């Protein structure tokens, strides 16, 4: 696929049907689409083409609610992006339309075989009104990986990202002005073939919705208690743990409910006879140990096919490695830092807690960024984990401050991708 910029007039388009424009120009994406000269059938199907974008603005725009009333994932903006796909004709015309219901037949395959994937990302507004996305290229890469794993169609990530930016520009006034607030962006793809039978779908729908959200901990960090789940397994080697599939999440709800009944806020997924730590609920996991020479070892389980490659996980690792190597120093973080991607077991965590070598344990994810943990219920007893006076630890807090600073724009970073000035 090749891309080029062309200046195109849009005055002839209907009032409510506009082609997406950026900086005074229309972005023209040329895809190599070919047909068989004898049959006329596609031999290379069209990819997503932003130049074909149609925009239908709502006739009934709603005022965004007060920021203080927001509940995560319950409020959505006026518009959404939809792009249909067919195995016969490829990706269809992208459309930004008023947010509303989808019309699907009861036989639609997503209802029966859970052929659905999604992503979670955020748009941030700085003090001057500039809107940015945080490392969205990683979300596009992971979404394509997830699509391939369940035989959904793949797509050009740059093209979809351009369309997501257009959607955010249209609804940017929904991003609350208050500090710590953002716009949660949820790209989703579902199989929409209206037929029962498990096979690669002939039809699919990619859509993107947006939700204004507040800080995960509005009253300061509150460490959570985890229940070490040994009765259920979230993922196994060769399975789908490394992909963001809807089917991975529904089976987790029972384990979370049982953890809550026992007095814990979330569950810790353990795997295998050694009870290896894998993930915290729906978050990636980090542990900090004190080593013999007094250094802090920041440990996270490796991406072995069971662990979701989280964007926040990768960001924490990158920042910590740059700090440890001296490439980029994070204020407030000790220079004596070792970063490891290796297996870690509950036996190691428990022993470190007893020996006073356990520094902290926390989860990472798009919604909470960093979530500190103060105890793990394991085999009938609580393994206690230190936390600082403000709920965070000596490694997680400076990394969190650096990460949030980059997300919100107070710290310049190439990870911040411009949506609009």
UniProtKB/TrEMBL annotation:
Alphabetically sorted, this entry's keywords are: Amino-acid biosynthesis, Aminotransferase, Branched-chain amino acid biosynthesis, Pyridoxal phosphate, Transferase
Q: Which GO terms describe its molecular function?
A: L-isoleucine-2-oxoglutarate transaminase activity; L-leucine-2-oxoglutarate transaminase activity; L-valine-2-oxoglutarate transaminase activity
Catalytic reaction(s) noted: L-valine + 2-oxoglutarate = 3-methyl-2-oxobutanoate + L-glutamate; L-isoleucine + 2-oxoglutarate = (S)-3-methyl-2-oxopentanoate + L-glutamate; L-leucine + 2-oxoglutarate = 4-methyl-2-oxopentanoate + L-glutamate
Which Gene3D superfamilies does this chain map to?
3.30.470.10, D-amino Acid Aminotransferase, subunit A, domain 2
PANTHER family of this UniProt entry?
BRANCHED-CHAIN-AMINO-ACID AMINOTRANSFERASE, SUBGROUP IIII AMINOTRANSFERASE
Name the protein family: Belongs to the class-IV pyridoxal-phosphate-dependent aminotransferase family.
Q: What is this protein called?
A: Branched-chain-amino-acid aminotransferase
Please give the organism.
Answer: Gloeophyllum trabeum (strain ATCC 11539 / FP-39264 / Madison 617) (Brown rot fungus)
